[in-house]
Write a structure and sequence with these properties.
Elements (H helix, E strand, L loop, with lengths): L13 H16 L8 H23 L5 H14 L1 H4 L4 H13 L5 H10 L31 H8 L7 H12 L7 H16 L1 H5 L5 H12 L9 H7 L1 H5 L2 H28 L1
Helix pairs in contact: 1-2, 1-3, 2-5, 6-8, 9-14
Length: 273
């Protein structure tokens, strides 16, 4: 990807860069195109241009294009029709998750900008009442109008986040009084499903070299020991499959991977002994 010359001749022409950024973002998530690689490719192209432009700015002792790029990425989320379609949210979350992971797009600045401009419908606790009318029983009919950014904030994953950023996100989406969120319930259910499909990992059954080899054989999917079929896994992990990318990434990175690493280290140490 680093050899692709998508931005190569336009490092200083921000007008052209803006058009190309919009084009590659739209291409990466539109259902009219094909390929699961597209969000990764788009994020890599943009990151490569950012790195080259920052190096060039550093040598010339001028402002870096980071703020310009943050504005363009925000504006696309804010105005793009294809980004606003609910059916494309999984690809949009994947795309911006990669941009956030590589610090091309600042999630913290994103939230701050939304709050600063008084984004309406950003929290699930907001109930808007633009045209209230009173029934004889004094019941007010409300109309709940949510911001498109509420969905983006809910779905975009945070690969590396601080406690303050996580709390800021939680307060922004669910309000300051929220103790347990729907995400907490979903993640508990996901953990149950993972325990069911990976019992060896949680029951401490792998403690000798032969059993460790058997476990690796299962992971490799060889004929000696086959993994459950895709249909079976989908049936057993419905919550995991349907969860937001934020919930999936947080569950895997913060809960499952540490357990898996400790398990592998334990098996390796027993093998040495």
């Amino acid at each position: 990807m680093t050899a692709v010359g998508y931005f190569s001749h336009d490092l200083n022409d921000y007008g052209v860069i803006k058009e190309k950024v919009d084009l590659v973002l739209t291409w990466s998530v539109t259902p009219l195109q094909y390929g699961d690689h597209r969000p990764f490719a788009a994020a890599t192209l943009i990151r490569t241009w950012r790195d080259k432009a920052c190096d060039r700015a550093s040598r010339r002792n001028v402002a870096t294009p980071s703020e310009f790029l943050q504005d363009q990425l925000f504006d696309w989320l804010d105005t793009s029709e294809v980004a606003g379609e609910v059916g494309n949210i999984r690809d949009v979350a994947l795309l911006y998750g990669e941009l956030v992971k590589h610090e091309v797009f600042s999630y913290a600045s994103y939230i701050q900008r939304l709050v600063a401009r008084g984004e309406v419908g950003l929290s699930y606790t907001e109930v808007l009442n633009p045209h209230p009318f009173f029934m004889p029983s004094d019941i007010v009919i409300h109309q709940d109008v949510g911001s498109r950014h509420r969905l983006f904030l809910s779905w975009i994953p945070l690969a590396n986040s601080t406690l303050s950023l996580t709390n800021q996100r939680k307060v922004t989406i669910y309000g300051a009084r929220a103790r347990e969120t729907p995400e907490d319930i979903t993640e508990r259910e996901m953990r149950k499903e993972i325990r069911m499909v990976l019992p060896d990992l949680f029951e401490g059954l792998i403690c000798t070299w032969p059993s460790f080899q058997s476990y690796l054989t299962r992971l490799q999917g060889t004929r000696q020991c086959t993994l459950p079929s895709t249909t079976t896994l989908l049936a057993q992990c419905r919550t995991l499959i349907s969860a937001t990318r934020f919930e999936q990434v947080r569950t895997f990175r913060q809960w499952l991977l540490p357990i898996f690493r400790k398990h592998i280290i334990k098996c390796a140490s027993l093998t040495i002994l």
